[in-house]
Fold these 4 entries.
Entry 1:
Amino acid sequence: MSDERKSDIDSLRAELDRIDRELVERAAERQRIVSEIGRLKKSSGRALRDFRRERQVLDGVRARALDVGLDPDLAETLLTALIEASLTRQEAERVSASGRGGGRTALVIGGLGRMGDWMVRLLAEQGWRVVVVDPAVDAESGTAVRELERAPGDFELIVLAAPIQASAVLLRELTDARCAATVIDIASVKGPLVDELKRAREAGLRVASIHPMFGPDTRLLAGRHVLFMDCGNAEALHLARELFADTMAECIEVPLESHDELMAWVLGLSHAVNLVFADAVARSGHAPDALADIASTTFGRQLAIARDVTHENPALYFEIQKLNPDQPAVLAHLRNAVDALIEAVERGDADSFSERMLRAGGWVEGHQQARRRRTHPSTDDPGHDPQENHDR
């Protein structure tokens, strides 16, 4: 390469560096304005998210991109990332400003687990004084102990973020001790806890049950669901809902007795499908890099979800499969569907294959339309609802 050409490239790279710095600075300026808008929205009682405004912004950006010769999809991707960052910042600031904890003390049992840690952070942002109880605590202190009996002081709230069966045992112990705190569990399967929740209610404990339907890496709760189960104590249910009142999470009440049957489909089935997919590929005899250069778009998308699933806690995922009393029926449906697919292919039955594919596609499309109606109630935009974190 000639010295002249190298000088031209260096000059252009310097120009790119300048533009990149300006982009970062402008993004920071945008975030500062976003914070001010968030404060004004809070003072006027307005919702944080405005789908119609978002669509107007994105449509304007796409039009401007066409004017200046930029790919509109690229422009929308950039602005979508900035909008999500803005919502995340506004939500975090609103949660922090709420001060709902008011210096009260909360105990998170299992607080070093991934979802336990998520709950610790949520409570701390709200102004709760949080004490963690977890056998994995290295050095005990005033805010972290290994055993419940060693937790200092009195607590107004106890969150059970331990494994499912351990949470049932802890709930029994708290009932026997006539615990005065409000007790909330976050278990992904409620079956093992149902009797203990009823027993606690009958003993006069303030108990409620919730299920955050997202993974521990989730930052923005817009479009995410939190399920609430009324265990017979209105005060406890109110406190549980208050924990998410300043977020953009969709709070859904579900009867306690219906929870596990629903979760068998939306959690157990999706986990099982992705585990089977990943296991089949791992057993294929192909080295991981052998398929890397030839992977299809569908394979890549499926592998991305399977990666999330297979990097989760195996003990928790086994509990979700094993402890849900409705899971065997769902796994039987999965087995039947796989058998029917294999049978159609082996018999060369294209009609049966097509019928199943079209029927499944119709159901999936109906589900997508229902989600769009719920997540974009004020706009006709079809939207796009990727999951940055798989559900627990």
Entry 2:
Amino acid sequence: MAARAAGGSDGVPGEDAPLLDDLMPWSVRPLRTGRSWVVAPDAGSLEARWERLVRAPDAERERLFRVTRSRTPRTAVAALPGQATGTGRFDRETGPCPRPVRILHGPFDEQWLLPDHRLIDAARPELWRVADGHQFFAVEHGYVPRDTGPALSVTALLPDGHSSAGRPGRIRPLYRRPGGGEPNLAPGLLALLRARHGEAVTERSVLAWTLAAARHSPAGCVVPLPADTARWSAGVELGRELLRLHLRGARGGERPRLPGGHRPYVRATVPPVPAALEYDPADGVLLLGTGRISPVPAGAWEFRVGGVRMLELWFERRTTAVGAADMDGLEAVRPRAWPQEWTSELLELITVLALLAELRPRQEDLAGGPQITAGELRAAGVLPVPAPARRPASVLGHREEGPDGQFALL
């Protein structure tokens, strides 16, 4: 995709700012599970769902499975890279539940997934091949008109790319190969930025700048590149702060913490079945039924992606009552009472959103000033991006189990 004029989207009317699609050219579409029961906020529910499914009689297993055109209990598929799961037909499965994996289920919501390829319509194996201890994933948030929320998230977890509103964005790994090999950047981009801003520019600093500076636009996610080194350095420093918050302690970082006196605490225990989530702005209190958490800054409560409040969406996904049609489905297998770990996760999410909201004005200050335009990138030969850079890299010498235990060399 060629870079297009962004108009005033980046605060510089008339500038030809590049798109993220050109700066990080290899991207993958969001996962498509095909059945909602393979994802859950707690790992225990997934294990219980598996046990119910594999113990069910044939006709019941077919119904619980939730057949789609892509997957039935008789579909034979390869194992997901890095996952030791069965590859025989699922209707013959009697073994133990595969270990659930932690994923990012849409922006800022860490959940669990059953990593069995037989249960997922489109699992995007190319993502699993490069998901290791060196990888970072940039996840675009689909464009929604008048959305003032962030355009991008970064995670060390495997993201499913689920969108809270609007059309889903793309998933862009920072590295094209396992082990942190071959940055997923337009060929020549690093050299150009080093010539402008110094040899300290790395793919990690490009990711940090991108996280801080990315903007929504109708044409796609726009990433203005500064010509001024002082502004580049300030943006990279800010981006590293944002990255630390998004990662929540992953990759050896510190877990986010608000300063003393501002940290949220449980003032009244969350009830077993909290009926509603409300916010008292006067006292800075988050109410979960009779449960009370404070102090909760307004910035955390109002934090939105795609126009959707993240705290409300997080709560809804954990408490929405199962409809009558689904009461005997696998989605109904869930905790009967609010688990303590959800309260801990909620406290951390409040902290992350509050700190991100505090940094938002600094992100807005990055707009403006002279830029390295898409025209300059074209003149330097960085754009247009060659077609191979938009495709997955080959993974050689890596054995993956195919259907019914056969192995393939990729």
Entry 3:
Amino acid sequence: MGTNTLSPVLASNEHSIRNGHYTDPNKSLKLGIWLYFILLIFEGALRKWIFPGLANPLLIIRDPIALWLVGTAWRRGLLPQNFFLSGMVLVGVTGIYTAVLAGHGNLYVALFGARALLIHFPLIFVIGSIFAYEDVLKLGRALLWLVPPMTILIALQFYSPQSALVNRGVGGDLAGAGFGGALGYFRPPGTFSFTNGTTLFYQLAATFILFFLVHPTRVNRLALVSATIGLLAAIPLSISRALFFQVVVSVIFLLFAMTRNPKFILRILGAVVISVLIIAVLSELSFFQTSIEVFMARFTEANEQEGGLVDGVLGERYLGWMAAALFSSFDVPLLGNGLGIATNVAVAVLTDPIMQAKVRGIPDEEWGRTISELGPILGLLVIFLRLGLTFKIALACFRRLAVKDLLPWMLLSFGSLSLLQAQWAQPTSLGFCTLIGGLMIASLSPPLPLKGALIIE
């Protein structure tokens, strides 16, 4: 892809060399991206345990950071100009007017809904411009170190009652933050406000774990082994089918990449053997036997309710929802019901019974929500922009396999599905989509040193 169509001149990702040492002219912006990442992981902890009285304002704690990053990058000429960004900004600005004039009529709700289009989506390109290849690896290594303590936390939440401190909900809610589950056990939220954060965290971590299993010299071995164990243990503890399916997808991506690089097959076989041994050991421990039993019960029960694995889960949940949104798009008012009407803010602010009925009638799936909020014209434009960007990045990631660069391809295994249908109305989902989108673009820049071949190992 010409990566410079998604990020400005590659110099924005390069380090200038002075006195024989690398200096980073964008250090403050990189620190801002790291702060965004840290707040994404621990925002829920702040809202549940540390500052429960500030739970509502902390919902948008990452927004000022994102706004500063986008504004600063724009002033420095580091925010790329491309069709995707211009189109999304146009939709966001237009959507504010249509929401106020022809939709729900509340400016605050419209602005809250527009943040995904006007702040977080542009941040994807800022991360892609500011982060270098090595910065992506650094973030991946940090994720690996976070996996073991996160797994310990969700294990505590899994086996603790919802009234326990570790399961305290947002704002100190004593009812607990667990959700769904099976056999009387609830899905644990980890450090996040809701359980989807746990799933998204491990989905992102899995892409890096698989990458480092092929390139173990690029990471601390203790971190890699402990993160691998933590991921395998987290799958049943999370009671999340989405996490299981995403790990399977990432493994399929890895196996496909290995067909183009046969010399890595032995490493993959070794990783598979080790993983099987870990699973065998964990399955013999009574501590994990319960979680495995609960996970299997949830898996079986949900599959039966949705009509089976292929037709119900994969067909209906993914392809079915997307097709239904497209076919029903012209049943929605031309200008939509109003940007932001599907958010929790709309539930709290739009108290009129008619508006409350509209809020409850908005589809949960992302494509249907987008069209319901913005209408068929603007809504479909957003969907096509997300499709186009995903395809453009996917093509570039595939091409990097030709030079034996595995990192972009592995990030794509999670990022492609996220860019296509991550729920932007939900702050945690929006944050992970923004992060993985930026990381994919950044991973397409040449690794340091900035000269010589692009071949990794």
Entry 4:
Amino acid sequence: MATRREQFDDLVLDSAARLEGRVGPRIRDVEFAVEDVPPSDPAPWERDGVPLGRTFPAHGRQPARVVVYRRPVENRAESSRELSAVVQDVVVEQVAALFGLNPDELDPRYDDE
């Protein structure tokens, strides 16, 4: 039986895998990670609330990285179905930012109620 943390990790990886058809093989070069909470030093553009995720572009030998913050995402969802949808939206937003795309281009279901 998987822990809540492991289940959340699986949601993130499943969401990333769904985007491969739209982004192509370059998404395989992106690392996906989950952290419990965002760091206490927010980026200048994150001053309007708690971030749900963050993108780090590739730098030198370090690959690009998408981080999803588990606790803030879980706090936004009232059910497991809603949690899956919020995770998908966060992953879509971060991958879109990384590749300079509109989230709607990556996932037609983006931000559906």
